């Protein structure tokens, strides 16, 4: 291990940072909706199986590359396969993270805006319809979302500037436990609402009529997205782990954390949507329309409780989003710092400004630029579709091919196992088999499913 390179102080710190990346808007606004829409309990079971039997091996492949390469995405591929085109996979990761950072920050900005509103005025004095329609007013206006996007992305840039130990590690160590506790509290609150039972039923009832091959593709795609696979984040964070910290256990804990958080979020969001008598749908409306409705309704009888839950909830969304944002930001930063020898401060500024500009276009595509369409998508949805449907799967495919077919098995097993104890190695042959044979086939299948109408 390069002693000059920064690293996480402990395995726990690495797990919290990885979990911070994994737990994000994907858990809060995509997962709950998908469960209900694609077959309830059946979707859940497939999601569980895919997470641990397919996504986890892909996670390991990505982490093995970073831990062995000891550099960011571009640097690791250049170091492990010098003189080949594999470094282009690093370029792909940087481009994907660049795109996702730009639009993710806009959504994080809305969360920041709503957090500020809950502290300043809350939703208890708004009528239910004002609380619900506030979102389209905010997101389609020009300045308000740009300001909050600036604040949100700026905060991420500041954390990144402080580096791995003093920035990312310190921040995720504080926020992740708080996030978990807050969400559990809100879950109990949400489950106690009138009408929550309907929501639980919607999620847990196995509905075979909604089950199709597409369900499988969505369950796997969602599990990849949720673990932040295929974009070099896991690779980059793993490159900051100490030699003695095992990626085998870090990966397992991160998946357990992410899975539990997805379930908790579903039990927060869906019961609230049903209690509000609204239709569950994917996307921002779930978080920024349905929950404010509940908060305003509750405000009529217990304004103080309403205010507290509102603040807790948007603080959770804010934490979940910013810990994911810094992980994408870091993929781009690592490249500028390590391969282009730019100082960390300058690198964070460069990425901040470029993602800020792209983010503004994404933000305006909910308002004044709404009619600008490329391939039938608005700028925001084009970025989202490109990153989460195409670039992510392509990246994941190239990672498993690299570890399964290019890297030698000994290096892979070496990285996978703990340095000091050989206990965990027994599971390696299974993961290796999945990485080498099963994952490439399945990922190509999900990729092709994007083209099925
Ligand atoms: N996992 C994040 C979430 O659930 C989203 C995400 C997808 C992501 N790909 C990523 C985050 C790459 C960081 C880096 O919201």
Bound ligands, each once: tryptophan
**Quantity of strands, as a count:** 0
Number of helices: 18
Rg calculated over all Cα atoms: 21 Å
Q: Largest sheet, if any? A: none
Which structural category fits the helices and strands? mainly alpha
Report mean pLDDT, rounded to a whole number.
91
Identify low-pLDDT runs: none
**Percentage of residues assigned to helices:** over 70%
Q: What does the oligomeric state look like here?
A: single chain
What is the string of SSEs from the N terminus onward? HHHHHHHHHHHHHHHHHH
Describe this structure in words.
The chain has helices at 11-22, 25-37, 41-69, 73-80, 87-120, 128-140, 143-161, 163-191, 196-204, 213-226, 233-239, 247-275, 284-301, 303-338, 344-364, 379-406, 409-416, 428-449. With 453 residues, the protein is an all-alpha fold. The longest helix has 36 residues, at 303-338. The protein is built from 18 helices and no strands. Helix 2 crosses helix 12. The relative contact order is 0.20. The chain binds tryptophan (TRP). Residues 21-22, 24-27, 100, 225-226, 228, 231, 233, 324, 327-328 line the site of tryptophan.
């Amino acid at each position: 291990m390069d002693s000059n390179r920064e690293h996480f102080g402990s395995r726990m710190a690495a797990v919290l940072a990885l979990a911070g990346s994994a737990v994000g808007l994907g858990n809060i606004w995509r997962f709950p909706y998908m469960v209900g829409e694609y077959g309830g309990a059946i979707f859940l079971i497939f999601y569980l199986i895919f997470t641990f039997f397919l996504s986890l091996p892909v996670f390991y492949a990505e982490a093995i590359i970073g831990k062995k390469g000891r550099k960011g995405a571009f640097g690791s591929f250049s170091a492990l396969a010098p003189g080949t085109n594999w470094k282009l996979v690093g370029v792909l990761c940087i481009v994907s993270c660049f795109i996702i950072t730009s639009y993710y920050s806009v959504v994080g900005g809305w969360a920041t805006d709503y957090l500020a509103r809950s502290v300043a005025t809350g939703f208890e004095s708004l009528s239910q319809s004002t609380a619900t329609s506030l979102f389209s007013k905010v997101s389609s206006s020009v300045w308000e979302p740009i300001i909050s996007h600036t604040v949100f992305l700026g905060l991420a840039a500041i954390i990144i500037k402080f580096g791995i130990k003093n920035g990312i590690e310190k921040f995720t160590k504080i926020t992740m436990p708080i996030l978990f506790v807050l969400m559990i509290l809100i879950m109990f609150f949400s489950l106690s609402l009138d009408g929550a039972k309907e929501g639980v039923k919607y999620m847990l009832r196995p509905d075979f009529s909604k089950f199709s091959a597409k369900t499988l593709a969505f369950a796997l795609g969602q599990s990849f997205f949720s673990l932040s696979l295929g974009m070099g984040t896991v690779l980059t964070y793993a490159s900051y782990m100490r030699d003695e910290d095992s990626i085998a256990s870090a990966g397992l804990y991160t998946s357990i954390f992410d899975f539990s958080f997805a379930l908790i979020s579903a039990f927060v969001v869906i019961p609230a949507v049903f209690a509000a008598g609204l239709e569950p749908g994917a996307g921002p409306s779930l978080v920024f329309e349905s929950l404010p409705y509940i908060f305003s309704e509750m405000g009529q009888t217990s304004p103080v409780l309403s205010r507290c839950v509102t603040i807790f909830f948007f603080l959770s969304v804010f934490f979940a989003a910013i810990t994911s944002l810094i992980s994408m930001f870091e993929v781009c930063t690592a490249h500028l710092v390590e391969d282009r020898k730019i100082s960390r401060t300058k690198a964070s500024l460069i990425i901040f400004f470029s993602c800020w500009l792209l983010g503004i276009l994404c933000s305006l595509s909910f308002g004044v630029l709404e009619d600008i369409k490329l391939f039938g998508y608005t700028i925001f949805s084009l970025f989202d579709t490109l990153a989460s449907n195409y670039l992510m799967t392509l990246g994941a495919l190239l990672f498993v091919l690299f570890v399964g077919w290019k890297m030698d098995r000994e290096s892979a097993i070496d990285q996978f196992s703990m340095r000091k104890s050989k206990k965990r190695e027994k599971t390696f042959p299974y993961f290796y088999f999945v990485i080498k044979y099963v994952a490439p086939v399945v990922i190509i299948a999900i990729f092709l499913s994007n083209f099925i109408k």
